[in-house]
Write a structure and sequence with these properties.
This protein is mainly beta. It has three helices and 26 strands. The protein has a seven-stranded antiparallel β-sheet, with no helix packed on it. Helix content is about 10%, strand content about 50%. The relative contact order is 0.20. A hairpin with a 3-residue loop joins strand 20 and strand 21.
Length: about 290
């Protein structure tokens, strides 16, 4: 069985732009090794927004050397980037963007959501790229809910939406540069389940709705993150109330992690080059 390394609460809420009240669950500054290949997880909301005619969100900002994954639970977002991609993702959709050699993008509440108002709830995950792919061509994919397979848990305990990786014969639609698991889990009140993960992969569980008892030893509550050991293969989950969990596990890249905000590379020189390239306009412009 994988053992619990520790559970930590999400940080205090802070605003990203004027549209995302975010709690940081972990980042590469404190969990670069234990959560390799994952770099950061921010949880936005749930937060209620009144109808408006103004744009709410975050303006153009860059990334290099990573992938950003946005999972929407409630609300609707609009995306546009310097590679010419644009579109909207709604509740249960996923946006998987490979920054690679460099991309800049903006993220706002969709015009429709801004006009109607409502509840926004989402997470954004940063995934590291191995050195050989850090200069890959930028890529964007909107994965709509209907593309994500659902695996039912035994004894009607709930279900797993397989975004990346495989569970019970269901293969997620995300194309990843290294092997990984991204599972969106719903566990019903009063139910218990056991999941199997690869030996040697680290793992983490973000509790977005709970509480949940992990491995019969630790209770994790809303906006808390539990880090699990690389050793072992099984975990157990038990819920008193309906629970929403995001489970992450991946084959470690085991390469140096040198980061500066949205740039994550392998050396300090590569970070300096990324800053120069962005300042010199080499990431392009977002066209409206």
């Amino acid at each position: 069985m994988k053992t619990i390394v520790h559970t930590r609460p999400g940080g205090p809420r802070h605003w990203v732009g004027n549209g995302f009240p975010v709690r940081s669950l972990f980042s590469y500054h404190d969990h670069a090794e234990s959560m390799d290949p994952f770099l950061l997880l921010d949880y936005a909301g749930p937060a209620s927004f009144q109808p408006t005619g103004s744009r709410r969100g975050v303006g153009v900002h860059p990334h290099r050397g990573i992938e950003t994954v946005t999972i929407v639970y409630q609300g609707e977002l609009a995306h546009r980037d310097t590679a010419g991609n644009g579109g909207e993702i709604s509740a249960a959709d996923v946006q998987w963007m490979t920054a690679g050699a460099g991309i800049a993008h903006e993220e706002y509440h969709s015009d429709r959501f801004a006009r109607t108002g409502g509840t926004l709830e989402m997470v954004q995950l940063w995934v590291n790229l191995p050195a050989r792919h850090k200069q890959a061509e930028p890529r964007y994919r909107a994965i709509v809910a209907g593309e994500i397979p659902t695996a039912m848990l035994p004894d009607s305990a709930g279900y797993v939406r397989v975004i990346a990786g495989e569970h019970d014969g269901h293969i997620g639609p995300a194309r990843t540069h290294t092997p990984m698991i991204v599972w969106d889990i719903r566990l019903k009140a009063g139910c218990r389940t056991e999941l199997t993960l690869p030996e040697g992969w680290g793992a983490g569980i973000a509790t977005l709705g709970g509480p949940v008892l992990i491995n019969d030893t630790a209770i994790t509550r809303e906006a808390e993150f539990t880090v699990l050991s690389r050793e072992g293969t099984h975990i157990t989950l038990e819920a008193n109330n309906d629970a929403t969990l995001l489970l992450l596990s991946g084959e470690p890249i085991d390469e140096p992690v040198v980061g500066h905000g949205p740039f994550v590379m392998n050396t300090t020189e590569e970070i300096h080059r990324a800053l120069r390239d962005y300042q010199d306009g080499r990431f392009g412009q977002v066209n409206h």
